[in-house]
Write a structure and sequence with these properties.
It catalyses: S-methyl-5'-thioadenosine + H2O + H(+) = S-methyl-5'-thioinosine + NH4(+); S-adenosyl-L-homocysteine + H2O + H(+) = S-inosyl-L-homocysteine + NH4(+). It is a single chain. It is built from 16 helices and 16 strands. By secondary structure, the chain is of the alpha/beta class. The strands form 3 sheets. An 8-stranded mixed β-sheet has the order 3-2-1-4-13-14-15-16, with helices on one face. Bound molecules: the ligand CSC[C@H]1O[C@@H](n2cnc3c(O)ncnc32)[C@H](O)[C@@H]1O and zinc ion.
Length: 446
């Protein structure tokens, strides 16, 4: 090889193991990922990298598995400030008696800025590089994610009633339109439309949300079939199950992400499959609020794309997507009565490529391949809790927790180095978070 055949690049990551996600089920040994600017320009053996590439930086990860960054497809980031505030309650009691009153008292632009940063710190520490958010002041959340350099789908909220962010559907939709105009086409932030749920949004605003989605191409994300109560109440009051109502309104389609999806019958599954809508599975929130079970394997067998999300830290109570995968894989087996349901590799695909598909970005995110964006994580498998290593995919899902994530890059920019965040001032953030704890827990607010 002569000097002029040597290729110049920016970063070289030498990994002990590599899980590219595509092709599915593959684990490669001693591979190198080459990054040039924001993209992966090669995935080659370390010997080939030695011969062909010269980079300005080399990162040796001799005990690590390298894979695409995780995609947390459903959450309410700033609700991290309400973590542990109201536990052991069913959904409607949790919302009506605790969360909605607290949101009325505390949600403001500063609450969103600080809470979103807290959530991003946790997500980055545990391997997430792209997240989806549905919460108030989405313009503040979008700016917060952009400032840190995280990728995010930011869905503006749509409800029938007033909140800290607006007086009702007209204002939510007007402000939402502004959010879409401001961020559409941005490489980091994808604006989206977030009608809260069938029981909080009536037909008129839902139809306007569908129209806005068709007009702008912005995806819709909605909580749907979260609890048995939701389905029973809708059936009794409206004579229709929520999935059927969404189908007749025209909300189901390839640009729609349905979150939770418990209590599904055969007709619901058929309707979702035929529409091409995506499902976002949130197993830990479903378990903690005793909401119900999502039949993940059955949905996948029906050809539905199933992604995964943590939901907010007030109902989970963490944003560790590796922990969520463990729960998802374990639960899928019981629900399907089949220990082979949702294998470790299927679970990893759910948190990467399936998430990318749901937001329409699988051409550039969700796997490690030449030309894709350099959103990459490394997990250190050297600790006793994760040894010995026969199959790194098994450990990532069944033995790991996000605490073993050591490095991450988003758009080729390092976000986590040896477990330390590069773009968030954690001590300063903790002071602000503690200020919120004092305000929220002050006796006058009890
Ligand atoms: C439309 S802004 C988000 C709105 O949703 C509330 N919320 C948080 N978690 C859940 C959940 O699991 N189901 C339904 N609603 C949820 C949040 O508190 C905001 O008010
Ligand atoms: Zn939610």
């Amino acid at each position: 090889m002569t000097a002029d055949t040597i290729i110049a690049a920016d970063i070289r990551i030498n990994a002990r193991w590599l899980i590219p996600i595509e092709p599915k089920g593959i684990v490669l040994d001693r591979q190198t990922v080459i990054i040039t600017g924001s993209r992966i320009t090669a995935v080659v053996s370390q010997a080939e990298a030695d011969a062909k590439y010269r980079t300005r930086e080399t990162v040796d990860l001799p005990q690590h598995v390298v894979m695409p960054g995780l995609i947390n497809l459903h959450g309410h980031a700033a609700m991290s400030l309400f973590r542990g505030m109201a536990d052991d309650l069913p959904l409607m009691t949790w919302l009506n008696e605790h969360i909605w009153p607290a949101e009325g008292n505390f949600v403001s632009e500063q609450f969103i800025a600080d809470g979103t940063q807290l959530a991003m710190a946790e997500m980055l520490r545990t391997g997430t590089t792209t997240f989806s958010d549905m919460y108030f002041f989405p313009e503040v959340a979008a700016q917060a994610a952009h400032d840190v350099g995280m990728r995010a789908q930011i869905a503006f909220p749509l409800l029938d009633f007033p909140t800290a962010w607006g007086s009702g559907p007209d204002e939510y939709l007007n402000k939402g339109q502004e959010l879409i105009s401001a961020w559409q086409g941005n490489e980091f932030i994808s604006p989206a439309i977030g009608p809260h749920a069938p029981y909080t949004v009536s037909d008129g605003p839902l139809e306007r949300a569908i129209h806005l989605s068709t007009e702008t191409g912005a995806p819709v994300q909605i909580h749907l079939h979260e609890t048995a109560f939701e389905v029973a109440e809708a059936t009794e009051k409206l004579g229709q199950r929520p999935v059927a109502r969404m189908q007749s309104l025209g909300l189901l389609g390839p640009n729609t992400q349905c979150v939770h999806m418990t209590q599904m019958n055969e007709a619901d599954i058929e309707a979702i499959a035929a529409s091409g809508a995506h499902i976002v599975h949130c197993p830990e929130s479903n378990l903690k609020l005793a909401s119900g079970l999502c039949p993940v394997q059955k949905l996948a067998d029906a050809g539905i794309n199933v992604a995964i999300g943590t939901d907010g830290a007030a109902s989970n109570n963490n944003l560790d997507l590796f922990g969520e995968l463990q729960t998802a894989a374990m639960l899928a087996k019981v629900v399907a009565n089949d220990a082979a349901a949702l294998s470790a590799h299927d679970a990893l695909t759910m948190a990467t490529l399936n998430g990318a598909k749901a937001i329409g970005r699988d051409h550039e995110l969700g796997s490690l391949a030449e030309g894709k964006l350099a959103d990459i994580i490394a997990v250190d498998l050297s600790d006793p809790f994760i040894q010995p290593v026969y199959d790194p995919a098994s450990h990532l899902v069944y033995s790991n927790h996000g605490r073993a994530v050591s490095h991450s890059w988003i758009h080729g920019v390092p976000q986590l180095q040896d477990g330390r965040l590069t773009r968030i001032d954690v001590p300063d953030l903790m002071l602000r978070v503690d200020g919120w704890r004092e305000r929220i827990r002050h006796p006058r607010n009890q």
